[in-house]
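User: Sequence recovery, please. Input:
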């Protein structure tokens, strides 16, 4: 996968760029797709991909933040019955 062409390295330079490249290689080796990586980069949650997978990742970090911000967090956990 060409991380530069896929714009997955963004404007990073130096050590940050090298670290991002190593993380991307690792995530590809773990089976993440180009689409998943691109979405995670766009949502600034690339480092959370493996954690989301391990925890069952039904929702993205951004979706969870939005749910908490709008008061929908309880419904998502099933604590409140939906109409």
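Assistant: Recovered sequence (83 residues):
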């Amino acid at each position: 996968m060409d991380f530069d062409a896929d714009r997955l390295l963004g404007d990073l330079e130096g050590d940050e760029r090298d670290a991002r490249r190593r993380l991307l290689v690792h995530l590809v080796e773990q089976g993440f797709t180009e689409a998943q990586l691109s979405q995670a980069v766009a949502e600034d949650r690339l480092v959370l991909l493996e954690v989301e997978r391990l925890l069952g990742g039904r929702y993205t970090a951004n979706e969870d933040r939005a749910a908490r911000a709008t008061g929908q967090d309880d419904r998502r956990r099933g604590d409140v019955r939906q109409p």
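The chain has five helices and no strands.
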